[in-house]
Specification:
The complex is a heterodimer of chains A (149) and B (169). By secondary structure, chain A is mainly alpha-helical. Chain A is built from five helices and no strands. Chain A is 70% helix and 0% strand. Chain B has eight helices and no strands. In chain B, α1 packs antiparallel against α2, α2 packs antiparallel against α3 and α7 crosses α8. The chains are: A mainly alpha (149), B mainly alpha (169).
């Protein structure tokens, strides 16, 4: 725990904006640069900054380790689940065309809308796994302490 | 050209420095320069990834690893002649390989002639997603990206298994 007032105040000021920028990168990825990978790293960086300034215990109160352990496989499951969903809608695995607005007649769907939702959900999956992995690795490093103490 | 010169200077600095903390900081600077190179090449998505992963997270993780070890590099135990010969030979092979690459920025080259052009042509009609990088990554090449996510998942699980403090019974 660092007792430097400037660092703590600056970090408190920065962290909400970093999180907001991460969400922007995630949700605006369809229109500008960015996507799940970058946003996941940015959001993980916000939590890591918090952990560096306020100590690992404070960070694990905000984002507990069990949550991180759940997030890592959860993202892969979301991603793969979109594929299963498209198979349930009688399409190929990860074929987003068929996801939405299936009509009474087999083979009618709104392809563009389905693509939007498919890409959106898949990027959420990427975000969850990347954030979880980065935080998990950081917690593991931070939790070890020096070998001699 | 300026960026590449700075990259070379930082690389020499990384090799010459024995203080590992300085090496980590120089690697972060290297990543930011690399991100600038990517922006010059109009690859903003790659630049963003390089800046956040290369300069951000890796620096933090390497600093975390550094906290567990000593801060000064041990003096080399073996002579550097053989590694230098191998590296120089490998570099020469790579430069020989670039002779067959098409000239930079030309329209008639494999990158622009096969599926790449097809994706760009059909993207707006099929996806309505202006950033073609996202649509290729998440939809046209969705299966590859699923593989990438699985790789990250595997890496995370592996590191956590290795670093976890197992209770000795």
């Amino acid at each position: 725990m660092i007792l430097d007032v400037i660092l703590r105040v600056a970090a408190k000021l920065f962290i909400p904006f970093i999180l907001m920028f991460g969400l922007y990168v995630q949700l605006h990825g369809d229109f500008g640069p960015g996507g799940g990978f970058q946003a996941g790293v940015i959001i993980a960086a916000a939590v890591i900054l918090y952990a560096i300034i306020f100590g690992k215990d404070a960070a694990t109160r905000a984002v507990p380790e069990w949550a991180v352990r759940v997030m890592i496989p959860m993202g892969v499951l979301i991603y793969a689940g979109v594929g299963v969903w498209s198979m349930l809608m009688q399409g190929e695995y990860l074929n987003y065309n068929v996801l939405l607005h299936a009509g009474e007649k087999i083979g009618t769907y709104d392809a563009v809308h389905g693509q939007h939702w498919g890409v959106f959900l898949v990027e959420i999956g990427v975000l969850v796994t990347v954030t979880g992995t980065m935080l998990g690795i950081f917690y593991m490093f931070a939790g070890r302490g020096r070998p001699d103490d | 050209m300026v960026l590449l010169t700075l990259l070379a200077a930082i690389t020499v600095g990384i090799i010459r420095t024995r203080n590992l903390f300085a090496v980590v900081v120089l690697s972060g600077a290297y990543s930011f320069l690399m991100a600038s190179v990517m922006i010059v090449l109009d690859a903003v998505d790659v630049a963003m990834t390089e800046a956040s992963v290369g300069a951000g997270i890796s620096t933090v993780l390497v600093l975390g690893a550094l906290y567990l070890t000593k801060i000064h590099e041990a003096p080399p135990r073996y002579s550097a002649v053989l590694p230098m010969v191998v590296t120089a030979g490998f570099g020469a092979v790579l430069i020989y390989g670039t002779w067959d690459l098409p000239p930079f920025g030309t329209a008639v080259q494999p990158v622009n002639e096969h599926v790449g052009a097809l994706y760009l042509e059909r993207n707006m009609a099929e996806m309505d997603i202006p950033n073609a990088v996202t649509s290729v990554l998440a939809s046209y090449r969705g299966f590859d990206t699923l593989g990438e996510v699985t790789v990250i998942f595997t890496a995370g699980i592996g590191v956590m298994l290795l670093l976890k403090r197992w209770r000795t019974s």
